[in-house]
Design brief:
Number of strands: 6
Number of helices: 8
Strand order of the largest sheet: 3-2-1-4-5-6
Structural class: alpha/beta
CATH class: Alpha Beta
Bound molecules: adenosine-5'-triphosphate, magnesium ion
Order of helices and strands: EHEHEHHEHHEEHH
Largest sheet: 6 strands, parallel
CATH topology: Rossmann fold
CATH superfamily: HUPs
Helix content: 25-40%
Distance between the termini: 67 Å
């Protein structure tokens, strides 16, 4: 008798959204450990086009620069990939729209939204959260300073333990301005991108 074909298992895809201005080791360690802990097949680092909550707060680097840095950060890293889905869509970036679009593009996948605990604490201020709850499970990773923040009632979520790294894009931008060391806080190729493109030297 012929063997039956393997029953198709649904792919588990992690969505890790951010401004990534710039991407750093905190993002990469969180993404890889979330992938492992939640048994995700792959994780997409989704570069926000216009993170509407940050508009007017400070000048963002152009989306193309942020995408190039995320591409450099995940180059050769198994299971992580950069996504330009929000940049292609243009305009303000709403996570619920991105998840809905990914459901259309990946009909065989279950989606898992990876959020640092500071982002979890901000969830009540997000738009379209009723849709969001239906579109993805949340994977929470704690981050120093906001440990223990959990989604409100109504969200399906799990918590994945990750090394607590006190690294932020805000601190890295200040380091570039002040000429302080960047080494080991972000991948070498990303440092080369930052310096080569002259990012964060003044203001921002
Ligand atoms: P900024 O300081 O400009 O806000 P950031 O370092 O917070 O930058 P974001 O692009 O805002 O980075 O974050 C994208 C996602 O990555 C969020 O879910 C955030 O919680 C998570 N994240 C960022 N840094 C870390 C870290 N060190 N550990 C765990 N998660 C992190
Ligand atoms: Mg942030």
């Amino acid at each position: 008798r012929r063997k039956l074909p393997a029953v198709g298992r649904r792919e588990r895809v992690g969505i890790f959204g951010g401004t990534f201005d710039p991407p750093h080791v905190g993002h990469l360690v969180a993404a890889l450990n979330a992938r492992h802990g939640a048994r995700l097949d792959r994780v997409l680092l989704v570069v926000a086009n216009e993170p509407w909550q940050k508009l007017g707060v400070r000048d963002l680097s152009p989306a193309a620069d942020r995408l190039a840095m995320v591409d450099a950060a995940v180059d050769g890293v198994e299971g992580l990939a950069a996504s330009d889905i929000e940049i292609r869509r243009g305009g303000r970036s709403y996570t619920a729209d991105t998840l809905a679009q990914l459901h259309d593009e990946l009909p065989g996948a279950d989606l898992f939204l990876i959020l640092g605990s500071d982002a979890v604490a901000g969830l009540p201020t997000w738009e379209h959260t009723e849709r969001l709850k239906e579109l993805a499970d949340i994977v929470v990773v704690d981050r120093p300073g906001t440990e223990g923040a959990r989604p409100p009632e109504g969200y399906r979520y799990e918590v994945v333990e990750v090394p607590q790294l006190e690294i932020s894009s805000t601190d890295i931008r200040a380091r570039v301005r002040d000429g302080r060391p960047l080494d080991y806080l972000l991948p070498r190729d990303v440092i080369a991108c930052v310096l080569g493109r002259g990012l964060y030297r003044d203001g921002a």
